[in-house]
Amino acid sequence: MALRECERQMATERWNCSRIAANYQYGQPNIFGRLLWRGIPETAFTLAIISAGVTASIAAECKRSLTCCPCHLTQVDNSGAPQNAITRPGCDHNIKFAKGFAKRLLDKTEKGRDVRYISLLHNYNTGRRAVAKTMKKRCLCHGTSGSCTYRTCWKEVASFQKIGQLLKMQYTKAVKVMQGSPVKIFKTIRPSLGDSGRRRRRRILNLVKVEEHSNRLTRPRRSDLVYYENVSSDFFCERQTYWSVLGTRQRICDAHGGNCSHICCGRPYRTEYYKHVDEKCNCRFIWCCEVKCEVCITDKHRKVCS
Asked: Domains in the chain, ordered, with CATH?
């Protein structure tokens, strides 16, 4: 789910979530290869959408009565409605449980104390927050003769395309960061039996924004995607097997949308003509009871980067 949405959202960019099929042959650790080791905006987007995909999937499974996922009680809008009058089948999308599960699954596998580690955890969290932020409220009316005497309401995860759109918008506004000084905080240690609890000072790792022409040190927002490394503007233009970059040669682009010059990195692009086969066209109903369709072949063309 996350991979398909990544490809959809990045279709008009020089890097379109492409993968090299033989990644493991080159000793690369995941489907995107070593690219996820870089601290660039594309990596930030990828990490966030992976985290969002895990969160959304778990939330959806909660609705299908996932064994380990507790059900949330349905909210009743009208205070005059009898308690437990309506029992809705299944469970809600338990976003709190889903976010916690995704955090344990992804965050705990990472180790470190450097800017890469802090940025990775930040972008994972941004992905989880995107799922929560885009959740929508659904309500069901109850009452006699179609009236809405009271309603039961619940929250559902939005379509993953909507979540992807939010993350793509954050990608276009990604914030460059560097590692700041550790921040000292006081954390209350949970008391055990017979213990009143105590407070312990703890140092947490910190990110600060890199802002040109400013001496202020400000922290990125939790909704920001963050990166810490700059690469040249043509980094994705040519094939780089080591970094799992396929380049943009032979990429299909949209001349009418004006993105061919960008995707092709200023190189020329050509027009390719091809035949499109539609196996079901001009369908008609024949009495009785059959639907007959024709096979239509149309000439089409597309723009391809040289």
From this structure: 2-188+199-247 (no CATH), 251-306 (3.30.2460.20)
